Amino acid sequence: MENVPASSLHASDQDVLMEERVRAALESSAQLKLKVAETQGNVVVAMARLVANAFSGGHKLLLCGNGGSAADAQHIATELTVRYRKSVQRRALPAIALSTDTSALTAGANDLGYDEVFARLVEAYGTEGDVILGISTSGKSVNIKKALERGRMQGMHTLALLGGDGGSVREVADLFLTVPYAEAADRVQECHIAVGHAMIDCIEHIMGYC
Hints:
- The chain is of the alpha/beta class.
- Helices cover about 55% and strands about 10% of the residues.
- The chain has helices spanning about 10-55, 70-80, 100-110, 115-125, 140-155, 185-205; strands at about 60-65, 95, 130-135, 155-165, 175-180.
- α1 packs parallel to α6, α2 runs parallel beside α6 (about 185-205) and α4 packs parallel to α5 (about 140-155).
C-alpha cells in the first residue's frame, strides 16, 4: 500500500496510509529527541544553569530566530515571562524575543540589511552579563551569527540551538546544541522546542522554584 498513490485509494484505505505516515513521523521525532537527550543532555543543563545564574544576577535573556525558529524564540520567551506550568509559582523572568517588533525588523531590513536586524537589536537591548540564545535549524543563518557576535562584543553569554553539524553559528556560541538531522527543518524544530521546555524546567529547579 505504501507504493500506491494516496489519491487512487478509497477514503478508508487513505486513512490507513495516513495513519502509518503519522506514526512514522512521530516515531522519527521521538527517536531524534531521545538521541539528543542521551548525547547532549549535559549541554541543556549547562545552558539552563548559565541562564538561571544570569536571571539571579539581575540580567536578561534575548532570543532570536527566523521563521519557525522565531516562533520557538517567542514561545520560550513567553513561558519565561508569563509561566511554563500552573504548578510552579514564580516571578516573571526577563526574556525578550527579538522577532516580535515588526517595525524594528522591517526598518532594520530596509535600512541596514536583513543580516543585521538582530544584531542591531542586541546592540540596543543587550548589556554585559546578559545571555543571547540564537536558534537556527541550519546553523548557517547569517543574522543569527551576527547577533551572537554582537552579543560577545558587549560581554554577553552566547548560546545556540542548531541543526545538522551546527554550521558557522556554532563558532560564536559559548554553548551550543546541535540536532543531528539534516534532511528537513521540521524534525530539528520539533527537537528545539522540546529542548527549550527541558531548559525552562531546569531553570526553575536551579532557581529554587520547584
